[in-house]
Design a protein that fits this description.
405 residues, Rossmann fold, 7-stranded mixed beta sheet, globular, 3 domains, 21 helices
Length: 405
């Protein structure tokens, strides 16, 4: 076990002195030492529209599955530094960066990370990646989890694994108990058909006794990367009940975007990307972006640190964009203020901060000191637009702040 990573995760998640909550937070942090997100669940197109990435921009983001870092690189910024407390996420991000620079063509990149289920992926790794990967990441991927060599996940359907992949597998099991077949949804030709499928097939699942019972446990959403503090925020949006909030977010994922254009829906309902030639994919996996990704991949790096700790090493005014994902939902007031002190110190004039929240409200006013937050302006219109266009549909809201200097 990586003791340093465990200690950092415990500190990041710990919010409550209540014994029961404390035990849940400790369990959650231990789960985060392993692979949680094989794919990130924030829409990079929404991010890139809000960040307005330019060639002079130095960005810092939380990595998760690193689809965001890889996609931002296709826009050609000066640098993208990704941070993550999970050693597994760091190893995944470094594998993706190595692949972008060393695999021979887009077809190989798509096979490895788009399909992620072919026996020949082992040959791609041995020939193109193994000797270019750093020692720590190579040891991770060539080592064993309790039951298998980790690298073999890319032969068996990578997106079925990790904490999120297994959570989605459990969701499919419940759907089978309710006799729901998602193939009809994936074949839908119109959003009207998608809405009809949701109303007839998915919505009734939320009335099942088993679903109601499971949703009442604060640990039930650990597979979505939702710790106790964030669960409580979701429940607050539902008047104390998380189930109506989950129902609405599944409805948005199912209905608000054409199914052929929403790879998040494919991951949820098929546990893979759409295999069609014109399928929607994360920007870094799209053929038209391959040459840009290869050209700029050397501008990306990923480190095993918290965002606050990393920023303490950055010069004043050196960053133009910050991507916080939903990490602030995990933080207490002291952690929030420590983070925003470093963001404000390292931000150049006009810098942008984007983040998601489990609930619908912006969590910063009243918690971050006015002397800090007062130097930033909230972009209400862009935030509302980003919230509406985020195809992952898992969050309550998207938020954008501009630095006024």
């Amino acid at each position: 076990m990586n003791i340093s990573a465990q200690a950092q995760l415990d500190a990041a998640v710990r919010q409550d002195t209540d014994a029961t909550t404390g035990h849940l937070e400790q369990l959650f942090s231990r789960l985060f030492l392993g692979l949680v997100y094989p794919q990130i669940w924030e829409d990079p197109l929404v991010d890139m529209a809000a960040l307005q990435i330019s060639p002079d921009d130095n960005l810092v983001c939380i990595a998760s599955g690193s689809c965001n870092m890889m996609s931002y690189l296709t826009a050609g910024p000066a640098s993208v530094t990704a941070v993550d407390l999970s050693p597994a996420h760091v190893a995944l991000g470094r594998l993706k960066l190595t692949a972008a620079q060393n695999l021979p063509d887009h077809a190989a990149l798509y096979q490895f990370f788009g399909r992620a289920d072919m026996a020949s992926n082992m040959r791609l790794y041995d020939r193109y990646l193994r000797h270019s990967l750093d020692d720590q990441s190579r040891a991770f991927w060539e080592g064993r989890s309790p039951f298998r060599r980790r690298l073999s996940l890319f032969q068996k359907g990578f997106y079925r694994y990790g904490l999120l992949g297994r959570f989605l597998g459990a969701v499919h099991l419940v759907a089978r108990l309710g006799r729901v077949d998602f193939s009809r949804l994936l074949a839908a030709r119109t959003q009207t058909e998608q809405q009809a499928f949701f109303d007839a097939e998915i919505a009734p699942l939320f009335d099942m006794w088993l679903v109601k019972k499971l949703a009442g446990f604060r640990a039930s959403l650990f597979g979505l990367g939702i710790p106790p503090a964030q669960y409580d925020k979701l429940a607050a949006d539902g008047g104390g009940d998380v189930l109506p909030v989950l129902r609405e977010r599944v409805r948005k994922l199912t209905c608000d975007f054409p199914i052929r254009e929403n790879y998040f829906a494919w991951q949820a309902f098929a546990r893979c990307y759409d295999p069609s030639p014109d399928a929607a994919l994360p920007p870094y996996l799209q053929a038209q972006n391959f040459e840009a990704l290869r050209s700029y991949a050397n501008r990306g790096r990923i480190v095993n640190q918290s965002l606050t700790d990393h920023l303490t090493t950055a010069p004043d005014g050196s960053k133009q964009g910050y991507v916080l994902l939903d990490a602030q939902d995990w933080m207490n007031d002291a952690q929030l203020n420590a983070l925003w002190r470093e963001i404000t110190r390292t931000a150049s004039s006009g810098a942008r901060v984007i983040f998601r929240t489990g609930g619908t409200a912006d969590i910063l006013p009243g918690r971050v000191a006015p002397a800090l937050l007062g130097r930033w302006s909230y972009d209400d219109e862009a935030s509302r637009h980003g919230s509406a266009r985020d195809r992952s549909a898992i969050y309550g809201a998207f938020h954008l702040y501009h630095f006024e200097g």
